[in-house]
Amino acid sequence: MMKVRRIVTNIDSNELEKAETFYGAFLGLDILMDHGWIKTFGSNEKMTLQVSVASEGGSGTAVPDLSIEVDDLSAALQKAKEFGIPLEYGPIVEPWGVRRFYVRDPFGKLINILQHQ
User: Which of 2, 62, 74, 107 is most exposed, with the fewest beta carbons within 10 Å of its own?
Assistant: First the structure.
């Protein structure tokens, strides 16, 4: 029986250095692969794998391109402020038990940063 081993999100851009700032410095992900034309960011920590299909992002918001769960949303908010990353939504505690905010990455992708309460 086949098992999915990994799911990778690919974002089209010629400005890979912007990815280093957002996904590396802001979100703290490591560069796992760099071939010049592609940079892959990630972590060697075990993580839960999920794929969501949605008609909205909840609370009437747009469906985010990525949802990234963190262990300390307050620290993520502080880093967003330090990096000058504007919030598009939140921070808010949602009725289903997550505290979250939306930002855009340098490529215009809507990112849902969340922490379960």
Answer: 2
